[in-house]
Amino acid sequence: MISKSIKATILGSLILFASCKEESKTDKILMTDNVLLQEWKGPYEGVPAFDKMNVADVKEAVEKGMKRNLEEIEEIANNEEGPTFENTIIAMESAGKELNRVFTYYGIMSSNVSSPEFREIQAELAPKLSEFNSKITQNEKLFQRVKTVYDNSQVEPLEPQAQRVVDLIYKGFEMNGANLDAEKKKRYAEINKELSTLYTKFSNNVLHDEENYITYLTKDQLGGLSDGFIKSASKIASDNDKEGMYAITNTRSSMDPFLTYSTERELRKQVWENYYSRGDNGDEYDNNQLIAEILKLRKERVGLMGYDNYAQWRLQDRMAKNPENAMDLMLKVWPAATARVKEEVADMQEVANELGDDISIEPWDYRYYAEKVRQKKYDLDSDEVKQYLQLDKLTDAMFFTAGELFNYNFTPVEEGTVPVFHEDVKVWEVTDKDSGKHIGLWYLDPFARQGKRSGAWATTYRSYTSFEGEKNVLASNNSNFVKPAPGEAVLVSWDDATTFFHEFGHALHFFSSNVKYPTLNGGVRDYTEFQSQLLERWLFTDKVINQFLVHHETGEPIPAELVEKIKKASTFNQGFGTTEYLASALIDMKLHLADPTDIDIDKFERETLDELGMPKELPMRHRTPHFGHVFSGEGYATAYYGYMWADVLTSDASEAFREAPDGFYDKEVAAKLVKYLFAPRNAMDPAEAFRKFRGRDASIEALMRDRGFPVSQS
User: Fold this and answer.
1) Which residues contact 30 (CB under 8 A, 6 or more apart)?
2) Model-level pTM?
């Protein structure tokens, strides 16, 4: 997933005019000893001083940054000259640089190196940040200036990127209550303040359960697990003062392989229950009541502006446009996905019976027996494949792909040259292969650890803009691979390798940006996953497979017959993958379409899944009590369907490469890919951008073919 912007993580989907503003040598100097506020110094046009950040500096830095930003906003709002694009929109685009620097550090402390001390400060700051935001979005003088520029641009349009910025900023004000009367504005701000606190608490509750529900195994409970996994589990246990034991942490990267290979069914059940019960343990960290409160407040807030429900308000500026279109797409795919699950379960039950296992398939059995079906049907052992998927080689494969498509070169930065926030983080310089032009820096934080949120994400510390002179890009990818024992290779699953490519796709989207103004580096949520999902396809290309998938011990290339098995099995378990995802996306949408009065979250989830015909043998990918995409902020709220929307675009775009003379490495199609689908970011309407690339709108048929589902002939 793409990381929500730092400020969006904190404040939900509220419009933030300081967002994405980068430091400039022409900044008004803020005299302070607080490193979080200071201009970035050092090589590469200045880099964050990650080695000097301190939790003790956070509160002061945020408060001073907000104060300075509000002073800038007041200067713009009270400008005695008539509103123009330059003195209003450009001035807003340039504001908030100090605060944006603070939030770069804030985001790292929140996501990568969190601590109990930081979480206390985070909880204290959340309502203050909401108040700060409301002072901008509800600044009547500022809005009237923006409205004047917008109205004038409807008569005399500006150049395309300038017009797009004006349209987006005006729409942002409008969607955040700028047209409300004073009384409603007051309530709007109060709701945002309440929500900011709830979002922070939700996230911290999930992180608590991830950190505190660890399953420890003894030596006689390791059946089925690989040597590498065992060594890693031993090290994690040792690090937690459990010498001689083996730790299964409460994260997907640890849970998934354990459920796939462990022969200990009761332990599989325990690990499964720990993972899927995050935020749902009936204690002080339980999120069910928080979710109910969030839903009520969201509905009340959009009701102030005349919307029937939150989804209606949220989707108006997305590709789907309304919840009906999003639901229509999901419900077209749902029957084929659940039908495939029935076939998969029947295959698994048959294998279980053949093995003499007297069981009926339960959710904690799905991965285990699916793996056995994979071996039986395709003679494909996932653990055998894993021996050829080394993290460092996959990193090289991503660099190769970036070189072929984007003409980028990645060079390791000498250790100590650029400050990092943890010893595991490595940095590369990105340059143009032909001209040698510096493009930016890529940070990689690959391993799971205490205080790091689960999952995988990409984010930017500095985005490209050119309105104040060209800015280089500082971007990162963050994963939660299980750190190996010393001297051991980092081996990952095919799914994890795909996710690694996915997140790198986001980074390439950042690096290839060619926009003038900071606002245009934002994204349309049901489109921003498209570019990253598309990049996953290059993992499956012969050039990557033949060069970079080599055995971690022998160095031998992956055998052609094993590759053929992987390709034949490419649609295997699509019932599971599609259904667990769609269940979460459907619940997200239905929760926001429902009446939240007296809602019982657990009951709603259970009854809605029953109505949909959710197979009992598998869970939602993200159960509601830990659905951070939707309830730790607002970036994906009623927008989790966006992965499926983006996948329709991905499948169709992939066929453009398959149809090209040189396939996925066709230079002409690659040039169009960069020009229309990556470089514009949000400077162009996404639907228009796709049509320029493909020559038409996307079709769902390509998606159904990709997943091995029946394609409608109507």
Assistant:
1) 37, 38, 64, 68, 98
2) 0.86
User: What average pLDDT does this structure show over 306-326?
Assistant: 96
Instruction: Provide CB contacts within 8 A for 645, sequence distance 6+.
Output: 319, 320, 326, 329, 526, 527
Q: What is the CATH number of domain 391-568?
A: 1.10.1370.40
144: its two tokens: 């009237």
Q: Yes or no: say if 477 and 430 are a contact pair by the CB < 8 Å rule.
A: no
Q: Under a CB-based contact definition with an 8 Å cutoff, are residues 113 and 79 in contact? A: no
The topology (CATH level 3) of 6-137+139-176 is: Neurolysin; domain 3 (1.10.1370)
User: Which contacts qualify for 420-427: CB closer than 8 Å, 24 or more apart?
Assistant: 420/50, 420/51, 421/50, 421/51, 421/53, 421/108, 421/112, 421/113, 421/445, 422/112, 422/113, 422/449, 424/449, 424/483
Q: What is the pLDDT of residue 1?
A: 63
Q: Which of 438, 441, 440, 463 is nearest to 517 (CA)?
A: 463
Distances (CA, A) of 354 to 357, 363, 655: 8, 19, 40
For 487-531, write each residue's pLDDT tens digit.
Answer: 999 999 999 999 999 999 999 999 999 999 999 998 888 898 999
Indicate the angle between helix axes 116-137 and 97-111, nearest 10 degrees.
140
Could you tell me where in the chain the CATH 1.10.1370.40 domains are found? 6-137+139-176, 391-568
What span, in angstroms and rounded, lies between the C-alpha atoms of 228 and 214?
Answer: 19
